[in-house]
């Protein structure tokens, strides 16, 4: 949970900052352009205000240091909404270690399993200041994080049998967040976790 505090300073900590203009597929294009092997420092994508209709998949990136991260965030003061298209797995499908998603609203208009899915192949994923509004379209969970992941200062509202926040790995945590869900607001899958 200590690195949740570091999220607030993310814009200042970026070694590389890439602005991302609003448009279809622009976030995924920017993610694909991140080098597979990153040098020292955080690599940041700052999203311009607007609605992005895409699924973003983050995978195949390595770092010079375990302290370094990929940070995908709204530009300061810019409202950003992700509206993933039909047949998406999630608005953000994280298959990479050390990724931060910050300051974004997720609101689908087609049926998808997850708002954010940080699968078992990813660790140290931070979700901060994110709002997931299932809009009756998220079917499994608003947010699922795995090993050493954290959700902070975020809110999830999903309907039907969908779960709100799922902690699916050891040492995952939730801090200062809320969830309203028909399938259960918080689900902890039998690992050492914390929720406050």
Summarize the structure.
This protein has 196 residues and is mainly beta.
Mind explaining what this structure looks like?
- The chain has 196 residues and is mainly β.
- It has helices at residues 2-7, 10-13, 26-32, and strands spanning 14-20, 37-38, 42-47, 50-52, 56-58, 62-63, 70-74, 80-82, 92-94, 99-102, 105-106, 112-118, 126-128, 131-133, 138-145, 150-152, 155-158, 163-167, 173-175, 178-181, 186-188, 194-195.
- The strands form four sheets. An eight-stranded parallel β-sheet has the order 1-3-7-10-13-16-19-22. The chain has a six-stranded parallel β-sheet with strand order 4-8-11-14-17-20, with no helix packed on it. The protein has a six-stranded parallel β-sheet with strand order 5-9-12-15-18-21.
- It is globular and about 45 Å long.
- The model is unreliable at 1-8 and 190-194 (pLDDT under 50).
Features:
disordered N terminus; 9% helix; 3 helices; 196 residues; mainly beta; single chain; disordered C terminus; 43% strand; six-stranded parallel β-sheet; eight-stranded parallel β-sheet
